[in-house]
Amino acid sequence: MKRLFLVVSFCVTIFSVNAQFRFDYHASYATYNMKDMKGLMNSIKTSEPFKSLGLEMVEDFPAYIGHSVNIGYRVNSHEFGIKSGFYTTGGKLSVGDYSGKINATIITNGYREGVYYKNYFYTSAMKDVDKGLKDRFSLWGEISPALIISTLKMKTVVSDVDFNEVVEEPEYNESAYAMLIQIGGKYYVTKNISFDVAVGYDLSFGGNYENLIGSPRPDWSGFRLSGGVGLSF
Prior knowledge:
66% strand; 8-stranded antiparallel barrel; mainly beta
């Protein structure tokens, strides 16, 4: 009987506070500090037979669009849950003339899996005719530790008027760690639908490709400028 009473008391406490489940999707403009990857591309460019062919850098691991999904639980000003994300970038060397062309590319992807804690340190409410006060705008800060699983794929395409040959290298996989810190704002269109904007920095460390020359590291560290939509239940 005592155990049943404790369970009932716990349930009553949980549902009596301002609690809600949340689902959020964000797209972000993400920069990446791919110093080692750029060095790897330069090593390929200056090695034979590519050096004598005169390949030029076309892409050098530029900033790109990242994606993330949050599934969390909010209690008053606190929110916590799981965060999944996806990053991608790459490098490309190319040379070509009337007789044919050669493209050498490296594509690297990062699958970010972690948890997050978000604190709503400021909230502006407005009156709702039927239900009293409701949130209109909030400011929040977030911290998110995670594991990043990085994949790297190399491909060389040689083609001319008579043939087309694709040479693909094995895919390499390594794991690294990351810590995202960001601050943002949330605007509530309705009680259950909101839009977010945020700015932050994701710090990545570890995860060297030991099987590649120089043991390069896919460094996903960089600034994040994101926006997205969220649902509350």
